[in-house]
Specification:
Elements: H1 6-10, H2 12-32, E1 45-51, H3 57-72, E2 78-86, E3 89-96, H4 102-116, E4 129-133, E5 141-147, H5 152-168, E6 173-179, E7 184-190, H6 192-198, H7 202-211, E8 220-222, E9 227-229, H8 239-242, E10 246-250, E11 253-256, H9 257-260, E12 261-267, E13 273-276, E14 279-280, E15 282-288, H10 294-310, E16 316-323, H11 325-354, H12 357-380, H13 387-416, H14 421-446, H15 448-451, H16 455-490, H17 501-526, H18 528-548, E17 561-568, H19 574-589, E18 594-601, E19 614-621, H20 631-643, E20 648-654, E21 669-674, H21 678-693, E22 698-703, E23 709-716, H22 718-723, H23 728-739, E24 742-748, E25 753-760, E26 775-777, E27 783-785, E28 790-797, E29 801-804, E30 807-816, H24 822-836, E31 843-847, H25 849-879, H26 884-889, H27 892-905, H28 912-943, H29 947-977, H30 984-1033, H31 1035-1038
Parallel strand pairs: 7-25
Antiparallel strand pairs: 1-3, 1-4, 2-3, 2-29, 5-15, 5-16, 6-15, 7-12, 8-9, 10-11, 13-14, 13-18, 17-19, 17-20, 18-19, 21-30, 21-31, 22-30, 23-28, 24-25, 26-27, 29-30
Helix pairs in contact: 2-12, 2-16, 3-4, 11-12, 11-13, 11-29, 12-13, 12-16, 13-14, 13-16, 13-29, 14-16, 14-25, 14-28, 17-29, 17-30, 18-27, 18-30, 21-24, 27-28, 27-30, 28-29, 28-30, 29-30
Length: 1039
């Protein structure tokens, strides 16, 4: 048989240079790898926005959302399409599948908007706009702009026209949303009585404002030498310029705008406010592009901030309120520390067993070369240094040392028998080369199903699986090349009396443990039925524990940030919401763990779809070392205080790094209902909402279905109106000009566009009774009050109209009660929905994170079966046997039992992180069986020993490497299991699953593997005896 390691042992210089080259390439790649919290799992997501000031949610939904959705429905790859229409604003969110390129999707969206333009209202101020955003729908940075002298309108103008534009141009930035006020505007507050006395209609005023303010091309003069442009003072921009405009005449006298209205410089909408730590502020929310690296994007913004601040007036203050990368950097640093501790612990294990610094150096070098070399492959594949890839390297420290231990331990055993060192390196490596390859390839096979797994979990753990598989593959190569070469030149035969007292003492201890194992193994081989019964019981325990252990999608992290929303009654005014925002911020600021709190209200986006009775909060906590409570604990501490605030319900949730889409909401999880008609949804949506409110297992239950907003219904007599020469269009115009903050003229500047906003005097906007005295100016006739041909009545209307995939929908959001897992909650909600016996036309489903959880839960059995099948195929090919792979696979049930018991004891959930831990256990535990079986087969073939003698000797001789590799794997994962600090919530389930599974399986598999091996061997012998007897009595024999 060819010894593949021989050239590397015989050419130590070449082998050394190869190892140095791998390390050098890895170190260079390490410095170039980008840093992130998690691998990029962003869906291509695009949001489309359209505004029509003053339009009701129903009008926005029917005239804008529906035409856009019809066109968007033709775009390929759309997996989710939702829309929310509120007062004057429609937002459509398109989420594409993971394979869709966001730039190509954006081109399709732009084409669809252009195709829908003919069906949109003619008075739409501007075309709908679209933005590429990340699917988490959470800002990566929040900035505040305050001033000692400037009003919020000027601050908003500065933020919108200059600051946001500079930030938006930076690479990685997808959108900069400015909230807390609105752009400067010239406001015209009409006096309807004065207009009526002069016989002037509101449409006359709107037309005058439009024609008296113009900015159109005028041409030029040109001769043989010069060109001269024509300009004029046709555009005006301030209230004092607009006030003298002639809007009509009365009795031969001109009527100017100032005669019938209060004209002043103000802001575009008065119904918007933002505060930071209780101080009036304009707030900038920075969102990243899909697949943009958050660390790099934030660093670019921070580098640009000094120059941006230099362009801001001295009295204005631009402050960084929230930086989501602070905890990301801390968590990545903590994982790097855990990686270092794992390496030290693994090397310590090796030293304890080998008790020689020279010998310990060999597997230590194998670990270093394997891990550092992995960085080079990560860089070539475009991976990042994130929590998961670093966790993969941390766990792999226990794996990559295994191969080197197996090779070196076998070489050491031959040296102790008197074989010369150089020859021992050649012979020892050749003896275990097959074992090393089998161990490594079967471990890599565990992750083959993960590499092909779809959806969010598949994208999330692709880097994890590939990083771990790469480190194992490099370790396999190093253990068969560098490790034997180092053994040949570093290991020395021990002379009699050379060992110190510590060595002799530890050797006696190991001999005692080995003797105990020899005794107990002999008992197990004499009582095989008892051992097999214990193995069967592990299968039963797997089924029972799978039903007991709590299940979730992803561990709850403490990112140091809390997102929140608050909601007033459905008829709440802007003034009451403004007071609620100040009261809520006052309570939050008093909490000792809070560093900053920013918030805004006024229907500008955020949870609740941006309805007029909603607001949004951003809370930054102090560093973890400066507070004694987690982010979730802060939320629980604030909840009763915020519940005591009258007039608003506040919802808080700890921000998470992983966002998997879904509609924006006031809680972390969503349940969605959709129907063909609004009436059906209006009946069953509240029924499901009230049913979920009564469930003690969930909390913060809220719905975006708000159908109890107040509206004034104007019921006019068309025949009477016609006699006055009044048409419905004239009525709509009169109402819009007085009550809709109508934008009647545009002021163009080099930086932005501003509007002239016209409506009735604010005093007249406080009572619906004003409608009766509102005048409609008929063509060629005097003004007629609405009360002359109409009546009014108060009714209810929706504050927001929501669609999902064209159809009316409602989303009920919720958080989990303490001690309740997502798996328990989804099961109970599904049972509750079935009890309500909804009709077939009501479609229900979980959305966002809850939907991703259900998808991952359904795929888990297939993943496990896929991993087992992959291992079986690899081992079957390597051993050319159908039975030996089954023997090896019988070690796996004990590992999952130990993992689930550990998860239950430490109150952790079986989520995608701990599931990966179980996958890793499959790879670790089967290594022990491979070490035993491979040695037993060699003993049978080469030495002619019986099966019983071979497996018993294999257990004895392989006990030390099995113990070493298991302890190395367990201690390598121990820093993850015991971790604290930033991001430890993410790492702990993985460590707990590995350590717990190893402790339980190590005890059991040392006995079950030899017993099962003997069982299958006896079955094989019986089969062979029957097969050889049959021909003796058959026709062929007789002939």
């Amino acid at each position: 048989m060819i010894n593949l390691s021989s050239p590397f042992i015989r050419r130590p210089v070449a082998t050394t240079l190869m190892a140095i080259a791998i390390v050098f390439a890895g170190l260079i790649a390490f410095r170039q790898l980008p840093v992130a919290s998690l691998p990029q799992v962003d869906f291509a997501t695009i949001t489309v926005a359209a505004t029509l000031p003053g339009a009701s949610p129903e009008v926005m939904a029917s005239s804008i959302a529906t035409p856009l959705e019809r066109q968007f429905g033709h775009i390929a790859g759309v997996t989710q399409m939702t829309s929310s229409s509120t007062l004057g604003v429609t937002s459509v969110t398109l989420q594409f599948d993971l394979s869709r390129d966001v730039d190509g999707a954006a081109r399709d969206v732009e084409a669809a908007i252009n195709a829908a333009r003919a069906d949109l209202p003619a008075n739409l101020p501007s075309n709908p706009t679209y933005r590429k955003i990340n699917s988490s729908i959470a800002p990566i940075m929040v900035l505040s702009l305050t001033s000692d002298s400037a009003d919020r309108g000027k601050l908003y103008d500065l933020a919108s026209s200059i600051i946001s534009q500079k930030i938006a141009q930076l690479q990685g930035v997808g959108q900069v949303q400015v909230v807390g006020s609105s752009l400067p505007a010239v406001r015209v507050d009409l006096n309807p009585d004065q207009l009526h006395s002069y016989g002037i209609g509101t449409q006359n005023v709107a037309q005058a404002l439009s024609v008296q303010n113009s900015n159109r091309p005028k041409g030029q003069f040109s001769d043989e030498l010069t060109t001269t442009e024509i300009t004029a003072n046709d555009q005006i921009s301030t209230a004092k310029d607009f006030a003298p405009i002639v809007v009509g005449s009365n009795n031969g006298k001109v009527v100017r705008l100032r005669d019938v209205a209060h004209v002043y410089d103000s802001v575009q909408t008065l119904r918007s406010a933002g505060y930071v730590n209780g101080k009036p502020s304009v707030i900038l929310l920075v969102f990243r592009l899909p697949n943009a690296n958050v660390i790099d994007t934030v660093d670019r913004i921070k580098q640009e901030l000094p120059s941006i601040r230099a362009s801001v007036p001295a009295a204005d203050h631009l402050q960084l309120m929230l930086d989501t990368t602070t905890t990301i950097r801390s968590s990545v640093n903590d994982v790097e520390v855990a990686l270092g501790l794992s390496i030290l612990l693994v090397i310590a294990v090796v030293f304890v067993f080998l008790r020689s610094p020279r010998a310990t150096l060999i597997p230590g070098a194998a670990v270093a070369i394997s891990l550092i070399g992995t960085f080079a492959v990560m860089y070539l594949l475009g991976f990042t240094l994130d929590n998961l890839s670093l966790m993969a390297l941390t766990v792999s420290t226990g794996f990559v040392v295994d191969d080197a231990i197996v090779v070196m331990e076998n070489i050491t055993r031959l040296i102790e028998r008197g074989v010369p060192t150089f020859r021992a390196a050649l012979q020892g490596t050749q003896e275990v080369a097959f074992t090393v390859v089998a161990m490594s390839l079967s471990l890599i096979a565990v992750f083959v199903p993960i590499l092909f797994m779809g959806g969010v979990p598949g994208r999330l753990f692709h880097e994890f699986a590939f990083t771990l598989a790469t480190s194992v593959a490099i370790s396999m190569v190093i253990s068969l090349t560098v490790t034997p070469a180092m053994c040949a030149f570093l290991l020395k035969p021990a002379e009699e009396g050379q060992h110190n007292g510590l060595y002799r003492w530890s050797e006696r201890g190991f001999d005692y443990v080995l003797g105990a194992y020899r005794t107990t193994l002999g008992w197990a081989l004499r009582h095989p039925r008892t051992v097999v019964f214990s193995l069967v019981m592990t299968l039963v325990l797997n089924v029972l524990l799978a039903g007991v252990v709590k299940k979730g999608l992803f561990p709850q992290q403490d990112t140091g940030t809390i997102f929140g929303g608050f909601q007033g009654s459905q008829d709440a005014s802007f003034q009451s919401m403004n007071r609620s925002l100040l009261s809520i911020q006052g309570v939050i600021r008093k909490d000792p763990a809070v560093e900053n709190v920013a918030g805004f209200t006024g229907g500008q986006g955020g949870p609740g779809g941006g309805a007029s009775n909603s607001g949004f909060l951003f809370i930054t906590l102090k560093p973890r070392s400066d507070r004694d409570i987690s982010a979730t604990g802060v939320v629980d501490r604030l909840r009763p205080q915020l519940d005591a605030i009258a007039g608003a319900s506040t919802f808080l949730q700890a921000a998470q790094d992983l966002g998997v889409g879904g509609r924006q909401s006031n809680a972390q999880y969503q349940y969605q209902l959709s129907a063909d008609t609004v009436d059906a949804l209006s009946k069953w949506g509240p029924a499901m909402y009230h049913a979920m409110q009564k469930m003690p297992q969930i909390k913060d239950v809220t719905t975006d279905q708000q159908n109890s907003g107040l509206q004034v219904l104007l019921d006019y007599d068309r025949m009477t109106a016609a006699r006055f020469g009044i048409t419905p269009k004239l009525i709509d115009n009169a109402l819009y000009y007085e009550f809709g903050e109508s934008q009647v003229s545009t002021i163009y500047t080099s930086l932005n566009q501003y509007y002239v906003v016209m409506e009735a005097n604010p005093v007249l906007l406080s009572s619906p009774s004003t409608l009766q005295s509102t005048y409609v100016h008929a063509s060629g006739a005097s003004s007629v009050p609405l009360g002359a041909f109409s009546t009014t009545r108060i009714s209810t209307s929706p504050l927001a109209v929501n669609h999902s995939s064209f159809f009316p929908s409602t989303t009920i959001s919720f958080n989990l009660a303490p001690g309740v897992s997502l798996g328990q909650a989804t099961t109970l909600i599904t049972q509750m929905q079935r009890k309500l016996d909804m009709p077939a036309d009501i479609v229900t489903q979980f959305a966002g994170t809850a939907q991703a959880f259900q998808s991952s839960l359904s795929s888990e059995p297939l993943l496990v079966l896929g991993a087992l099948f992959a291992i079986y195929v690899v081992l079957g090919v390597l051993y050319e046997s159908l039975i030996h792979p089954i023997t090896i696979l019988t070690t796996l049930p004990s590992a999952s039992v130990g993992a689930m018991i550990a998860l239950i004891l430490f109150r952790s959930e079986l989520d995608v992180i701990s599931l990966i831990g179980i996958f890793l256990l499959i790879g670790i535990v089967k290594k022990n069986a491979i070490l035993m079986i491979d040695f037993a087969l060699q003993a049978e073939r080469t030495e002619g020993k019986s099966t019983e003698e071979s497996i018993f000797e294999a257990c004895m001789l392989r006990f030390r490497p099995i113990l070493m590799t298991t302890m190395a794997a367990a201690l390598g994962a121990l820093p993850l299991a015991l971790g604290h600090g930033a991001g430890s919530e993410l790492r702990r389930p993985l460590g707990i699953a590995i350590v717990g599974g190893l402790i339980f399986s190590q005890i059991l598999t040392l006995y079950t593997t030899p017993v099962i091996y003997l069982y299958f061997d006896r079955m094989r012998q019986r089969f062979n005896r029957r097969h050889t007897r049959r021909p003796a009595g058959g026709p062929a024999a007789q002939s």
